[in-house]
């Protein structure tokens, strides 16, 4: 039986500033919790961990760049040593809340510019993988399917989860169409659902160029920052269920 | 045989900014490492943990207020909930570096205004003790001898270490003379050494008012931010050794 | 003819985080713009200044504590020298945007804990007044009616604007009922409107104890952070207009 | 008669962290003062402005990226709109201290990664030039000789100051040898002094390839962060004076 994890970023509020919709939680099986660098703060992290445990979703750290002003979305020229230290720090901070609340941390998914940069830069990807392994080798590393993050995770002996996107188009080489291209985003929700079903059932995706290419799909990235996103998540969740696909968090011990 | 721990704050550099003298390390048995709130950053924390392991000193977290500009020394009106979350976060962040480097974290000592406020405020002291216990109940809580921190630590089942000061005078009730009083600081190094010896050997201190009062002394706070402080540490270290006092880190299992 | 200014805090977004309702702008005559310490960032400040100019409302700086996490609402033990420097810095930063956009800055209103502390602490109030005077002596200093801020502003030769609150009750001595008292807030909008009309027309307010006491009312503090607040602002605006009261920004040259 | 300005970055302390040597001040004619983003804080800025006025050196703003952890040296993917707003903000903040102290701000020199990026990126250079012009068109824009910053400054009607380096080698096209090249730095102080004298007297520099190329030299960048740098500054100062070269700050009205 096919199975898939649905993940979304969570816990991205900061101080008085609210971001994110709790309504997404019934439709995802894992959340990536901001750790205070690009978003989140200690109070928010605690509440978010409590909420994740209450909803029974898998908990992951979502480390990002130390750039609250840019929400961790801006490319920064960081060294692998800096990335290593940033990731160790953030995993540890979240792990303490998870432990204090009696939960379990299952995974790590880099955020924003760190995710995108490490997807292509082997040295940064290795810094992330090494940080995860050094803190807890049983953690699963989430990264873009087919990217350097996945390669580095495997090289460091980590279980990995290949992430795919419902609302992004793919190139013939399996990479995402750059956002600068107007065709990068799939606005049509029917198309987005269809793409996910194909990726999960057939392990293939039709590229923008019209070729069906192989893709690994362990987890689908969803958004929880507005109500439309929540409705789409519900719709995708139901479509997957109706196809008989098991929607469940990636298990630590399951593969590889 | 009498024994005493000598501790100092460490790892208080930030980015390009350097603070602290490595030369203090031979004369202390435990270090309190800044965790990125009032000082320290991920790269500094990693290097500091490596250094502490190399020198064989006990490693503690040194959580402070999120006030880099004020070095965590400014009183802030924080709630117990905030303090709890700040302490959990910072212990976790440091713990990850300690684990990655193969070391062991032994203790937690609050920093600056947090230390001073919690020494007198039972609710804040309990928030700290609860945070330590929730993350790792085997950690030793360092706090001002006779303060609310020590009381809260015991109430939460933690091992505690009562901290005394070489260069501060005491009041009849065992509290430190406020810094606003010109007699608060012991400038004469002979006097400072003598005070420590009396505290360690006799478990008593002569108050500013001339009374000998009982004091618990598990650890002495030293400074490592300038060369004179390092020289004083060396002198105190040798004076204690010459008295046959065992200078060693507080042991987790030793008492209580 | 009686006249009154209606002011609200504005420009309190930060990075991706949105706060505040533009819909408040038709119902206020002056805005206090966050300057990047407790809220606001350079892009937000620029857009906010453009918006204020577009709506023809008077522009003021809204300096706060360097505590984004606490939104500048937490008491911090700052020295008058620190407060002076924080206020100079923030006025200057906003002034540059106002100048770049071809507008005029008219006033300064301290934010949050800085406002509350300086209302009672003469040394902090003087630090603020001195900062305003040193940067631009034609700026109007907004502060709690009857407070140390108003006294300090006058002592430093500044024009001042005494601020009153629609939704807060007053004590016999003219101070605000502390928020710890359940009667501190006026939840009934009829009562709130009535209180403002009495303050503006009669320069009196009925204290919680039932006494009519004298109060200066140059400006009323409104909130713009949710839709209910905007509706109340509209209602108050209309009530004042129906009473024939001129609703206009405080003029620099008008008095004193 | 030939004339030259000697400038150095200044006011780069932060909170308890000290950086920079006051001893540099007798040997420079202008300072670039950090504005709180990559370094500096309000108290430091005030003291630095006072010091600059006391020593009679020209005062400039030294805006950088909002990256205290990286000291503004890390490339960040910022938009021209962000750069514009960052520069307006920082100039304004410093201008307020200069005004409060009764001084005059004369120039703006971008810092670190912002300087380097804008030297090559016309859109960022224009954002900086526009920000300077919008806040105060009489300010002089300092930038790398021959760079986009100088071009943009002229295009926006600003007086510019072409900056050269004593301790960096140049390429045939007038650009600096990248730091990745081991020959980028001139370690020999005799060579460094000789290069400056040639640049100032002959308006030429010998490239790493051995060609004498034309270069504009209005100001020389010196360092003030350690004692060796101060000694080199003194030596260069004396060498220039002995050659009869006038060492003086760039004058606003002098050229163009």
From TrEMBL, chains A, B, C, D:
Subunit composition and interactions: Forms a complex composed of PxpA, PxpB and PxpC.
What are its E.C. numbers? Answer: 3.5.2.9
Role, per record: Catalyzes the cleavage of 5-oxoproline to form L-glutamate coupled to the hydrolysis of ATP to ADP and inorganic phosphate.
Question: Which stretch is the leader sequence?
Answer: none
Keywords of the record, alphabetical order, are:
ATP-binding, Hydrolase, Nucleotide-binding
> Record's PANTHER family?
5-OXOPROLINASE SUBUNIT A (PTHR30292:SF0), UNCHARACTERIZED PROTEIN YBGL-RELATED (PTHR30292)
Q: What class of enzyme is it?
A: hydrolase
The name this protein carries in UniProt is 5-oxoprolinase subunit A
Which family does the similarity line name? Belongs to the LamB/PxpA family.
Name the Pfam families on file. Answer: LamB_YcsF (PF03746)
Q: Which residues form a coiled coil?
A: none
CDD domains under this entry? LamB_YcsF_like (cd10787)
Q: Provide the organism lineage as a comma list.
A: Bacteria, Bacillati, Bacillota, Bacilli, Bacillales
Q: Which reaction does it catalyse?
A: 5-oxo-L-proline + ATP + 2 H2O = L-glutamate + ADP + phosphate + H(+)
GO MF annotation, one: 5-oxoprolinase (ATP-hydrolyzing) activity
């Amino acid at each position: 039986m096919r199975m898939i994890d649905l993940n979304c970023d969570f816990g991205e509020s900061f101080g008085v500033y609210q971001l994110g919709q709790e309504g997404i939680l019934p439709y995802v099986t894992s959340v990536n919790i901001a750790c205070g660098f690009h978003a989140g703060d200690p109070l928010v992290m605690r509440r978010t961990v409590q909420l994740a445990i209450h909803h029974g979703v898998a908990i992951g750290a979502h480390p990002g760049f130390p750039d609250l002003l840019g929400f961790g979305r801006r490319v920064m020229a960081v060294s692998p040593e800096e990335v290593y230290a940033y990731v160790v720090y953030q995993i540890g901070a979240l792990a303490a809340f998870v432990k204090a609340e009696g939960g379990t941390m299952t995974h790590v998914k880099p955020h924003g510019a760190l995710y995108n940069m490490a997807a292509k830069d082997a040295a940064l990807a290795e810094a992330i993988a090494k940080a995860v392994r050094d803190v807890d080798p049983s953690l699963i590393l989430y990264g873009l399917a087919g990217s350097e993050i996945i390669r580095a995770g495997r090289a460091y002996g980590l279980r990995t989860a290949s992430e795919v996107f419902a609302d992004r188009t793919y190139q013939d080489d399996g990479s995402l169409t750059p956002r600068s291209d107007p065709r990068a985003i799939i606005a049509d929700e029917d198309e987005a659902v269809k793409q996910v079903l194909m990726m999960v059932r057939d392990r293939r995706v039709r590229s923008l160029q019209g070729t069906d290419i192989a893709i690994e799909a362990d987890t689908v990235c969803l958004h929880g920052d507005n109500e439309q996103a929540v409705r789409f998540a519900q719709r995708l969740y139901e479509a997957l269920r109706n196809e008989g696909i098991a929607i469940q968090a990636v298990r630590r011990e399951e593969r590889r």
